[in-house]
Amino acid sequence: VHFNPFGVIKYGEAKMEELMTVEELAEYLRTTPGTVYTWKSMGIIPPKCVKKIGRKLLFIVREIEEWVNNL
């Protein structure tokens, strides 16, 4: 299953990654942003899915999809 309603955010010249916010991930997983934060801190959401830009927590769509498909 491929679900990708999110925009493309560009960081750097050559690298483009599709990223989602905590709120977007919560909606995708049908849960709350608080649960996303809890799952991230407990390691339920794998670290390879997470990208922190300053204080902003973002999630790599490709990695999240792979994680969800392997649950």
Q: Care to count the β-strands? A: 4
Order of helical and strand elements: EEHHEEH
What structural class do helix, strand and pairing data support?
alpha+beta
Largest pleated sheet: 4 strands, antiparallel
Roughly how much helix do the residues carry, as a percent range? 25-40%
**Which whole number gives the mean pLDDT?**
85
Poorly predicted parts: none
In what order do the strands lie side by side in the largest sheet? 1-2-4-3
Tell me, briefly, the overall form. Answer: globular
How much strand content do the residues show? 25-35%
- Alpha-carbon distance between the termini? 13 Å
Q: Please, what is the oligomeric state?
A: single chain
Number of helical runs?
Answer: 3
Written overview of the protein:
With 71 residues, this protein is of the alpha+beta class. It is 38% helix and 25% strand. The protein contains three helices and four strands; from the N terminus they run E-E-H-H-E-E-H. It has helices at 22-29, 33-42, 61-69, and strands spanning 8-10, 16-21, 50-53, 56-60. Strands 1-2-4-3 form a four-stranded antiparallel sheet. Strand 1 (8-10) and strand 2 (16-21) form a beta hairpin. Helix 1 (22-29) crosses helix 2 (33-42). The longest helix has 10 residues, at 33-42. The radius of gyration is 12 Å and the shape is globular.
